Amino acid sequence: MHVLLYCSGSAGDILPFVRIGGSIVRSGHSATLVTHAGYESLAEKAGLAYAPIDSAQQYAEYLSNVSALNTPGGIGRFLQDFSLPLAEGSVRAIESELRDNSVLLSCPTFDVPARLVAERIGLPIMWLFIAPVQVAQWNLRAKIRLAMFRDVLGDSIRQIRANLGMSEITDWDTWLAYSASSIGQWPRWFAEPAEDWLSGVEPIGFLADNEAERVQLSDPIEQFLAANPAPVLITGGTGDYLDESFFAAGLKAARHNDLPSIVVTRYPDRVESTGGRVLVAEKAPFGLLMPRCSCAIHHGGLGTLGAAAGAGIPQLILAFGADRPDNGKRAIDLGIGQMVEAREWKTDRPTMLLRQLLTSQKTRLRCEQIGRVTSEEQAGFPGVPELEAFFGSESGR
User: Fold this and answer.
1) Burial, 37: exposed, middle or buried (Cβ in 10 Å; 0-12, 13-18, 19+)?
2) Which CATH fold topology does 211-377 show?
């Protein structure tokens, strides 16, 4: 089996595909990562072939506009202005990597190129969902999605199809349908499939920090940890949509609890200068850093949430937009974290909840329990049995 991993978005959307790609390769199959510019090194470390769909400049422009995805009205505009213009190049990139035994694993939402290739070539296709909210309340979500793609984006998609020599879509419901089986990058105990979910989605567990990312911590981080053991980790993920207020809220909570902080962000200019007990780093391998922290303060992205769960540390989630409030509520229900929405970031609530998380023996024991469970779930080849079963049945038809 050769799995074409087509994905688009910020690093939080792409890293799950790198991680499952590593699992695919370790199990004896091969895989190619087809995504934005800049992921070649990460793909290589995971044993994946790599094909870019854009240039570094195009991807930078793409990332600078992802904040639109945090509002319902902005999703269509972002797809129209920054996603669909990459579609034809993405189709060519995917098709350039085709082999006789190729199959497709795609991200949802930004999946027009994968759908086009599957239709053109007759490839079986499966989806990897990034968060439970993407498959919840499916009847309503499917109606909204149909209206957006058919009525708002339809002209652009028709033009793309014409450029590729394809006829118009006659049945949008069928064209937008998902496969009978899909996978989700969360454990069943985090979000049990419900009656109103898209059918056939199987949770496979958090796709944890893989060996390809386990480089050494940088010297500045090691030196800071030596002088400031068990700091708070503050991170807003990789998307460009959080302003100074997010980092200020996290730093205030840590400072008022007399705790040092390591801030990991690609946008260090948004972090105020706070003195010697704060270190700002543009990147760090969470699989190595989180187990040495006392707590994670983050935006609610499921990749970060899963990394903190695997490290067995409590989480204070400053949730904003998209799937993140839903992820935060699930962390609360599990007893491993607390959540503060944006309207309360400037209050004393983050400080109070951080203190509760760090002083609660019940929370500490629950985090340790979830950490053990998460580690055990990653011992095999997450997702590979589901991929083998689905694509095996598809090829046998």
Assistant:
1) middle
2) Rossmann fold (3.40.50)
